[in-house]
Amino acid sequence: MNTNTDKTLKKANIEWLKSAYFSNEQQKTYLKKGEVLMQQGAENKRLYLIEDGSLTGYLEDESGNQFEVFRSTKGMFVGVYSFFSKSYASYATIIANEDSRLAYIDTAVQVVEDEESNSIVDHFMPIIVNELSARQLMAREASLEKEKTLKRLMHHDKMATLGEMAAGLSHELNNAVGVLQRKTEWLSDEIAEYLKEKDSKGMFPFFEKGLQKGQYLSSSEVRKMRKKLEQDGINTNDAQKIARTGIADKELQKYFTQSSEHTDRMYYYWEIGTAFHDMLLAAKHAVHVVKSVKQLGSSNAERQQSVQVDQTIEEALALLNSPLRKVELHTDLEQVPSLNVSSGELVQIWVNLIKNAIESMLQTTSKPVLHVSCKQINNEIEVQIQDNGPGIPTAVRAKIFEPHFSTKNDGPVVGLGLGLAIVRRLVESYQGRINVESEPGNTIFKVAFPIEINI
User: Fold this and answer.
1) Are 29 and 47 in contact (CB under 8 A)?
2) What confidence tens digit (pLDDT) does each residue in 175-220 have?
3) Nearest to 326 by CA among 352, 271, 353, 365
4) Of 448, 439, 452, 319, which Cα lies nearest the Cα of 388?
5) pTM (global) more than 0.85
6) 299-455, CATH topology level
7) Is 329 strand, coil or helix?
């Protein structure tokens, strides 16, 4: 119960009531801590004033469980309902929270007349109203707390259901993904041997280059390199192909003979290597995705690797090479201390966040720009993924990390929006944190990990 008496109950009136009705020293009772003043349903023909201490009222359900319905402290009254309703049955069990002193009146009390009132009800009406108001307030607070508890239970039920679904889904996908990964590795090795045997013009190093690094240059870097090659006298078509490979000037002098046929052959070997590079990365990532979905409701994951965060971001960008061609990409990836984490889980985090940013921008933004940075700030590693898309409305922002929430399909809907739910679980499992700042034209997801992660 609210410990503040109603504002309409003036101190002067209370003092008068105390003096007029509760000053008889023969009508005092003392309770030790834990002692029961009255039992639920038991007869009560007294109205008590707490002169010192505090008491709590409890209701008991059919199973014998007690729950609190009011709390009264010094200067407050108990027994109001049973006394004034004349049912003379206590609706609650009242127990002393501490050693307490109470004064009381009973049904034999004589009315103390004053100039305005000649009825005991008139004298105590403010008390009755105050008690009803205070208990109504407490009932409201209890109802709100019950609603919060129910929502928490519903969330836990959702997570349990999601965990069961994820386990079944990952079981179905695990074998298929494993076959794809093993066969991709085998096919890559076989093709490498075949191309090496058939290579008569020294092109095999370009296959190895593509297999090792893929297309690692951003669109803006490719354009810049193409312009430089065109200025050196290379035609546009050849310049575009050479620029995509990211070949250095000294390598270019070694391999390039001003022949389009030579360029096509070089590009052919590099493109095959790049295709296998992306396939192997995708297969590896798929394995980690299936594993993470399976662990959605679990906190146990294998984390034995010492991983460079900037390299996991580069892997994620390689996986998203195709959609990234549609945006202007800027990266600022510093070499930061390695973390004791799973590289696949970090790649999954970046893929989810970057993919969401790209999709958001491509919906409405005429010149989409993506900034990805990785830096050490004090004792943390912070990764920022920033886009100039339409932004995330405030109402939606509060829900984007919920397991069943998605903003796809032309607006916020309840669906299988597992991406950001998994992202948050992974980040928090490394004692990290994720937050988002958003307004139209500028959305920033920030992910921070402590350098020292306690496994």
Assistant:
1) no
2) 777 888 888 889 999 999 988 888 877 888 888 888 888 887 777 7
3) 365
4) 439
5) no
6) Heat Shock Protein 90 (3.30.565)
7) strand
